[in-house]
C-alpha cells in the first residue's frame, strides 16, 4: 500500500462518544509518534441523520456519509476500523434526535409518521435507513470472535464482582409461546442457482400483492421464512398477564426492538395493547386523534396527552392508575421516574436485560423501587429456552461465582447480514389474510405460509461463504485455545438443520484431530456449558447471529460483571479488520450521571483491547514495525492497568473514565520508554513517561476536582464538540504533557 497506514476510529453516541473526547487525543498522539494516522469517522445517530439530507442543509451544515465510506472499506483488505457502540435508535429516539437537530438550526423535515404524499414517503424512507440497528450490519463483513482475554479473566477471578444470590424457591421464569410463533412455522430452502426471488402475498380474494421483487440470491445460500401469528401472540400475552398477577411476579417483556426493527416493535406494541387494553379501548378515538402508536410504547401515550383536552388527558391518567390496581406489577426501567418496561421499545433490550436480571438474583425492579421475582416474557421459542436453562441452573446450584467460573468465548455467524439480524427489509406486517409465498424466477413457490391480517412474516438469508468462514474460525479458535467448541444448532428448526449439514461438510475441510467439536441444540448446549463453567472449564460457543448477541452479553456479565471488558474482533472476510469495543451498548445511564455530576463511569477497557488488536493487525498486514512496538507496549500497559485496577472507581471522588485514560497513557508511555526494539520511539516517549509519572498527583487531582457539578455539553444527540472536548479534558497538566510529545 502506498498510503500511510491508517486506523479509522468511530465517533458514536452517548457514553462512548464522551469517552472518545478524552481517549482519542491520547491515541492520536501515541500513534502519530509512530507514523500512524488515527482518523475519526462520525457515525453518530445525528451524523447519520444529517448525511441523509444534504439537499435540506446549507453547505456549512452538510456532512459526508462516513458510514457508507466505512461500509465500502470493510469489503477491502485495507480496512482497519475501531468501532465503538452506537445508538440503534427506536422511533422515539429518532424523533428526539431530529427535534434536537432542528433546534440547533438544521432545517430537517419532521418524521412523517403517516405519509400522505410521495414526498412524505421519500422522507420517511430516508429516516428509516437510520432507524434501528443501522450501523453494525453495514460494517460486519466478517464473522465475530468475542472473548475475555486471559488477563481480563484472571483479573475478574482475583477481584470477583458481586453476584446476587439465588434462592431455590425463586418464582422467576421465562414464558414463551407454544405455537403460532416463528419457531413453529420456520421453513428453509437451499438456493441451487444464483438469481433472484420475489415475495408475494396471495390474497384470499385471489389478488396478488408483491411484497418484494428482484431479491438477489446466491447459489448455496439458505433462505428461511417464518411467521408469527399476532392472534396467537395476543392470546399468549393475555394469559401471561393473568398468570403474572396470579403468581405475584413482575410482568416483563424482553425483545430486541433495535436490531429486529420491524418485527419486535410490533410484538412490543401487541404487548402494550394487551396490558393497557381497557384504557386504550375506552379512549380509542381520542388516542387515535392524538396519533398514539402502541408500537412506540406507553411512553408515546404520555407524550401525546398534552395534545388532548385537559379533562380527557386527566381521565386517561386516572384510568391507567386504576388499571394498575388490576394488573400484575410491571417491571420498571426507572422506578423513580415511573418509567415501565412497556414505556419505550428500546429501553429493555434482551441481550443486556436478561443477564442483568440473572445477575440480580433473578429479580427486576418494581414501582416501589424494590426487587421482585419476575416473569420474563420472550414470546418466540427460537432462543427463549436458553435463559430458562440458566434460571433453573441458578435455582438448583445458586448464583455463578466469578472467582471460579470457566469462560465462554463465542464464535458467531454474523457476516453479510446473516440470519434474523439481516431480515428487516424482508419482514412485513401482513396487510390482509392469504398466503405469503417466496417465488423463484420461474414462479415456483419455494416456501409458503398461510397468514392472517396483522401477522408478522419474515424471511432471512444466510450466505454460504460466511458459514464456511465461521466454521473455519471456530476450528481455529478451538485449536489455538485448546478448548472444546459447541455449535448451538437445533435440528428441529428447518434453518438450523440446513446449517448443520453445511457445518458437517465444512468441518471436513479442516484438521480436527484432537479437537472436541460438537453440535447440540441450544438448551442442551447451555446445560453442558453451564455445568462445565461451574467446574471452572471453558467452552467455546459457536452460534448463529442472535445467540452470538445474547451469549456475548450473558457470559461476560456473569464472568466479568460487564461485557465492556470483552475483546470483540471481526476478522473481515476480505482480509481487513474491524475491532469492536466490548459487546455492550452506549449506556445512556452513564450520560445522565455525567451531566448531573461530571462523573463518567464508562469503562474504556474494551477500547484499549480493540486498539491493541487493531495495531497488531496493522503490523501483521502491512509489516509496519512501529505498529508492532505500539501493540506490544499497549498490551503491557493493558496488563498493568488491570493489575493496578485503574478502571473507573464508580464512586464520586475516585477516578472516572478520564482518570483511567491518564493511567493508560502513563503505563503505555512507560512501556514505550522501557522497550528497546525501537530506540527512536524509546527516546521520544521517555520524557512523556517521566512527565506523567512526576505529575501523577497533580493530574489526578485536576481530573477529580471537576467532579460533583452538573455539566452542559449543549446537546444529547449532537453535543457541542468544543464544550464536550473541554469537559472531557479538564487537566491542563495532562494536556500540556501530551501536547509536548
Ligand atoms: N455494538 C453496538 O453498537 C451496540 C449498541 N447498543 C445500543 O446501545 C444502547 C443502549 O443499550 P443497552 O441495552 O441499554 O445496553 P448498555 O450496555 O448500554 O447498558 C447496559 C449496562 O451495561 C453496562 N455497561 C455497558 N458498557 C459499559 C462500559 N463500557 N463501562 C461500564 N459499564 C458498561 C452498564 O451497566 P451498569 O449499570 O452495571 O453500570 C449499563 O448500564 C441502545 O441504543 C442499543 O441499541 C447495544 C449493544 C451493542
Ligand atoms: O447493533 C445493535 O443494535 C446491537 C448490537 C449488539 O447488541 C451486539 O452485537 O452485541
Ligand atoms: Mg449485544
UniProtKB/TrEMBL annotation:
Entry cofactors: Mg(2+); Mn(2+)
Cofactor note: Binds 1 Mg(2+) or Mn(2+) ion per subunit.
Keyword Cell membrane: no
Enzyme class: oxidoreductase
Example GO BP: glyoxylate cycle
Binding site for Mg(2+): 351, 549, 553
Positions that bind NADP(+): 83-88, 136, 585-586, 590, 601-603, 650
SUPFAM superfamilies, per the entry: Isocitrate/Isopropylmalate dehydrogenase-like
Binding site for substrate: 133-140
Residue spans crossing the bilayer: none
Family affiliation: Belongs to the monomeric-type IDH family.
Protein known as: Isocitrate dehydrogenase [NADP]
Organism: Cognatiluteimonas weifangensis
